[in-house]
Design brief:
Chain A: Keywords: Electron transport, Mitochondrion, Transport. Chain A: InterPro entries: ET-Flavoprotein_bsu_CS, ETF_a/b_N, ETF_b, ETF_beta_N, Rossmann-like_a/b/a_fold. Chain A: Its cofactor is AMP; FAD. Chain A: It is found in: Mitochondrion matrix. The complex is a heterodimer. By secondary structure, chain A is α/β, with parallel strands linked by helices. Helix content of chain A is about 25%, strand content about 25%. Chain A has a single domain (about 5-250), classed as 3-Layer(aba) Sandwich (Rossmann fold). Chain A is built from six helices and eleven strands. In chain A, strands 9-8-7-10-6-1-4-5-11 form a nine-stranded mixed beta sheet, sandwiched between helices. In chain A, helix 2 (about 75-85) crosses helix 5 (about 195-200) and helix 3 (about 100-115) crosses helix 4. The longest helix of chain A has 16 residues, at about 40-55. The radius of gyration of chain A is 22 Å and the shape is globular. Chain B folds into five domains: about 1-130, Uridine Diphospho-n-acetylenolpyruvylglucosamine Reductase, domain 2; about 140-255, Uridine Diphospho-n-acetylenolpyruvylglucosamine Reductase, domain 3; about 260-385, Alpha-Beta Plaits (2-Layer Sandwich); about 385-490, 2-Layer Sandwich (Alpha-Beta Plaits), CATH 3.30.70.2740; about 550-710, no CATH class. In chain B, about 30% of the residues lie in helices and about 15% in strands. In chain B, the strands form four sheets. In chain B, strands 13-10-12-11-15-16-14 form a seven-stranded antiparallel beta sheet, with helices on both faces. Chain B has a five-stranded antiparallel beta sheet with strand order 5-6-9-7-8. In chain B, strands 19-20-17-18-21 form a five-stranded antiparallel beta sheet, with helices on one face. Mean pLDDT of chain B is about 70; it is low at about 1-20 and about 520-715. Classes of the chains: A alpha/beta, B alpha+beta.
Chain lengths: ~260, ~725
């Protein structure tokens, strides 16, 4: 394998992280009409990290390719990735179908092969289904080393990569050689704004649109969503005027 | 004399006596502005407190001085009242009972919402009772079809908006203080805010109000309809009345549907001209989706940077740069119902302004959190300006082409007087920053200061008002008059308008108990001087000419004209306020010396040259004689055409300095045995050099204390 780095950036279009999702009437999913969609925040961090790596190792990074699997509107977030600094991009148009992590991993494997990528950086999870599986499954399918929940990434001269992970009680440092998979945690970096001139240039960058059939994959559903429910609403507190009242209240609630 | 005695009593025995216990660093308003005298209201009695407790309950009456600090101090930490009582009613009926009691017992009160006002209108000046509406915070009803929200006045704006968001509607007003301001306060102040461009002013969106009038009567138009042309539209009177006509307790407001797609673009521009061009283009090309167009200068971004401590949106590629070099920044918000449509429109617009160079750089929000971040660079300026110790805020409407000139003029003026430096901590002023709602022709001028300082204030006021008036602007676009600007209404309103306002005020509130000392239209006395205020404003350009200097030296003896002394003492004319202020502080300084030699001064004449035309000056000199009390003749100070004179003869143990300020002249008439002028000139007036000292003539002796005032019409010869 050559010493150049070719980064693959999978990004997902999700309901904006700052919005409060609403469960639809049928309780089968989240209301998505008239709701703002944005790039998955962890994927945004992944894009930012790829750009940082390129800026730090200009001669090493050969290409950055962004890919999204979703409806045709996911082009918007690919444009953002391109504006931030990705060179090329692919949209795998699945219309409005849900794609499960295993399927996503299979599609990504095809794209990895197509672009001969040797570093895949993606969010540790998407904030819509919170699966936290794609990176791991992809590593399994490719049989690559993986560094999940990265809080710091360092590329060494010999193409080994050191990744810091925040774990309970401290920081764990893992090291592997390329090719490898990195999934990003919240504190890896802070994504920046995209400037208008870059946005305009991004329009001219290549955006290829494929279907799953083009990649020789059929989407199958192995999971079933039974029901979605809001968490129970927290009961309001009450004031008591004396210790005796407090004790009797607590007894009433079987707390003591 | 009566008045003076009352004042001194209030100072010694009043709530100021409890001052030492209060742990506030903010100066008492009464100390900062000694020319403002406590009016003849009754003191709060224990019976009154008991009565209020019986109405609202023990827990809703605040009397602890530390707890009261919150209600006494304004958010800019510029004004502090001395109220010893805050009442927090929960129902309109309770408000009515409280107000009725105050009416019957002649107790002054200040209605207070979230206390986020910027002109000192929501805090007491002396010992007025604070009537806090914070306990009235319920939503009464919401009509899903018409979008009409009816709610208590104390509802916090953000809570109202969050409630409406759930229903797919939006509150037609948004402003920086939304987390703490009340909708009732918004209406009382007729707040403008960030979305005025889109949804118009509250005069349009408020459909009805519930107001407790100053005698306790409840005015209720909450069930008003969108169209109702039966008689006068009374609710309009309360919108922007700043609590001087009644206590707003309920608001019925029409809310538009909430836009589903919101975009923000944050742009950097090379010149103010480019800002105007961009606005013009945005209006025509973004058209119906344009919902806010805000501009900020580089200095304001620099302040915001120090406050927010994050990367500036346009400094993404170069983290070492605090704020990029562009002198102006613009925030454009679009809101609409179809994201694709809006995105395409905004994109086309931005491309075209980028391509032809109108806009130098920019970013567009990609998600909700970026959208919020971009807004903080505009909304955070207000708070950032207050970081160094204080801020003088001027919220003005000006014609767009000259809007930014005001900021440059002020910077130059402060530099001229050596008052401004970003780095030198010994200078009182840090910087002057400008930002605001271009879409509404409204600019916020924040003079960021390290401390509140009379020299700075004198340098700025009334100069800034004069400048605004000269350029046909309004001295208060959306903040109201409050305490800060109450004396300057004459710069924006004609005498006819002011007289009408006074009539309305006296009709609603003959005792003047509602939010006294604020918004000068509400003050009962001194109408004649308001006349001079407006005349003064009109003639201000002439005043700064060298002619005015010559004017002051003209003197001539003339036969007296007798004018009967009015019963009420004269109120100082607006532009005299800083002068009187000086006199007061001078007295305090001199009081030690004065003890040794009583009666240094018998008579003080305040004269104010208010209106003249340069062409008249050279030839015509009219004269004014003043008869004071039982003294038949007073040395006549000869005054130029169109002069307003306030004569105040006092038996005061102090020495008064011959003072002048810009176009105002104060003459001290001293007894014969005194050599006259206090020579201590190391004073603080930075404007001393703008005028020559007027000459003092021989003066008569006066024992009698009385008041007289007169005013001559402008332009009489």
């Amino acid at each position: 394998m050559s010493s150049k780095i070719r980064i693959l950036l999978p990004v997902k279009r999700v309901i904006d992280a700052a919005l409060k999702p609403r469960i639809n009437k049928a309780q089968t999913g989240v209301e998505s009409t008239g709701v703002k969609f944005s790039i998955n925040p962890f994927d945004d961090i992944a894009v930012e990290e790829a750009i940082k790596i390129r800026n730090a190792h200009k001669d090493k990074v050969e290409s950055i390719h962004a890919v999204s699997i979703g409806p045709s509107k996911a082009q918007d977030i690919l444009r953002v990735a391109l504006a931030k600094g990705a060179d090329t991009s692919t949209l795998v148009d699945v219309k409005d179908q849900e794609v499960e992590p295993l399927q996503v991993s299979k599609i990504l494997k095809k794209l990895q092969e197509k672009h001969n990528s040797n570093l895949i950086i993606l969010g540790k999870q998407a904030i819509d289904d919170d699966s936290n599986q794609t990176g791991q499954m992809l590593a399994g399918i490719l049989n690559w080393p993986q560094a999940t929940n990265a809080s710091k990434v360092k590329i060494n001269e010999d193409n080994t990569v050191e990744v810091e992970r925040e774990i309970d009680g401290g920081v764990e440092v893992v090291k592997a050689s390329l090719p490898m998979i990195i999934t990003t945690d919240l504190r890896l970096n802070e994504p920046k704004f995209v400037t208008l001139p870059k946005m305009m240039k991004a329009k001219k960058k290549p955006l290829e649109i494929l279907t799953v059939e083009d990649l020789g994959i059929t989407i199958e559903h192995r999971l079933q969503t039974c029901k979605l429910e809001d968490p129970p609403v927290r009961q309001g507190g009450a004031k008591v005027s004396s210790v005796d009242e407090l004790v009797s209240k607590l007894k009433e609630l079987n707390a003591i | 004399m009566l008045m003076l005695q009352r004042v001194s009593k209030a100072r010694v025995a009043g709530p100021a006596g409890a001052l030492l216990r209060w742990s506030s660093t903010v100066r008492l308003t009464a100390e900062s502005y000694p020319q403002v005298k406590r009016q003849d209201f009754c003191q709060i009695t224990p019976q009154a407190v008991d009565f209020f407790k019986s109405v609202v309950g023990e827990s809703a009456v605040v009397t602890d001085p530390d707890d009261l600090l919150f209600y006494n101090e304004d958010q800019m930490r510029k004004y502090r009242g001395q109220s010893s009582l805050c009442v927090k009613p929960k129902t309109t009926q309770q408000v009515s009972e409280i107000v009725k009691y105050c009416h019957e017992h002649k107790l002054a009160l200040v209605p207070q919402g979230g206390n986020t006002g910027l002109v000192g209108g929501s805090v007491p000046v002396f010992d007025e009772i604070v009537l806090s509406l914070s306990g009235m915070n319920k939503i009464r009803s919401f009509d899903h079809t018409s979008g009409i929200l009816k709610a208590d006045a104390g509802l916090i704006l953000e809570n109202a908006d969050n409630f409406l968001a759930e229903k797919g509607y939006i509150f037609p007003l948004d402003l920086g203080a939304k987390g703490s301001c009340h909708i009732g306060g918004n209406v009382a102040a007729n707040a403008g805010g960030l979305r005025l461009l889109r949804y118009g002013s509250l005069h349009g969106s408020v459909l009805g109000l519930e107001v407790v009038l100053p005698d306790g009567t409840i005015y209720d138009s909450m069930n008003a309809l969108r169209k109702d042309n039966t008689g006068y539209d009374l609710k309009q009177l309360f919108i922007g009345s700043e609590g001087t006509l009644g206590v707003i307790t309920g608001v019925s407001i029409l809310c538009p549907a909430r836009p589903k797609a919101v975009n923000i673009a944050f742009l950097g521009l090379e010149s103010y001209e480019a800002v105007q061009n961009t606005f013009k283009r945005a209006r025509s090309e973004l058209c119906e989706i344009l919902s806010a167009f805000e501009f900020m200068d580089r200095q304001s971004q620099w302040q915001a940077k120090r406050f927010l401590k994050t990367l500036h949106p346009l400094a993404q590629d170069d983290p070492d740069v605090d704020v990029p070099e562009y002198p102006f920044y613009v925030l454009i918000e679009t809101s609409g119902s179809c994201k694709e449509h809006d995105d395409a429109k905004l994109e086309t617009f931005l491309e075209s302004v980028m391509e032809d160079g109108t806009v130098a750089d920019g970013v567009v929000s990609q998600d909700e959190s970026q959208l919020k971040t971009l807004w903080t660079w505009r909304e955070g300026i207000s708070e950032a300006s207050n970081m160094d110790g204080g801020v003088y805020k001027y919220d003005v409407s000006l014609p767009l082409p000259v809007m930014y000139d005001l900021i440059e003029v002020l910077r130059a003026r402060l530099d001229e007087h050596g008052l401004r430096s970003i780095s030198d901590a010994s200078k009182p002023v840090v910087d002057v920053v400008g930002y605001g709602h271009i879409g509404d022709g409204n600019v916020h001028v924040n003079v960021v200061v390290r401390e509140y300082n009379k020299t700075v204030e004198k340098c700025l006021e009334p100069y800034v008002y004069q400048w605004i008036s000269d350029h046909h602007g309004s001295i208060s676009a959306e903040h109201g008059l409050g305490f800060q600007k109450k004396n300057y209404i004459g710069y924006s309103k004609s005498e006819v308008e002011i007289a009408l306002m006074k009539d309305i005020k006296s009709k609603f509130d003959p005792q003047g108990i509602m939010n006294p000392y604020k918004s000068s239209s509400a003050e009962a006395n001194g109408s004649r001087f308001d006349l001079s205020a407006s005349s003064y404003a009109r003639s201000s350009t002439a005043m700064s000419s060298p002619l005015s200097r010559r004017l002051l030296k003209i003197k001539k003896k003339i036969p007296p004209i007798r004018i009967d002394a009015p019963t009420a003492p004269p109120t100082a004319p607006p532009m005299m306020a800083p002068l009187l202020d000086d006199l007061e502080s001078e007295r305090e300084l001199e009081s030690a010396d004065a003890d040794a030699d009583d009666k240094l001064v018998d008579c003080v004449i305040y004269t104010t040259v208010v209106c003249f035309e340069p062409s008249l000056l050279t030839v015509d000199v009219s004269t004014v004689a003043v008869t004071v009390g039982d003294v038949d003749e007073l040395e006549l100070w000869e005054l130029v055409v169109g002069v307003s004179v306030g004569v105040c003869v006092e038996d005061v143990d102090s020495c008064v300095e011959l003072e002048e300020l810009d176009v105002c002249v104060v003459c001290a008439v001293l007894n014969e045995d005194d050599d006259g002028i206090d020579d201590d000139e190391d004073g603080d007036s930075v404007l001393d050099d703008t005028l020559d000292q007027p000459v003092l003539e021989d003066t008569p002796e006066l024992d009698q204390l009385s008041y007289a005032s007169l005013s001559l019409s402008p332009y009489t010869v």
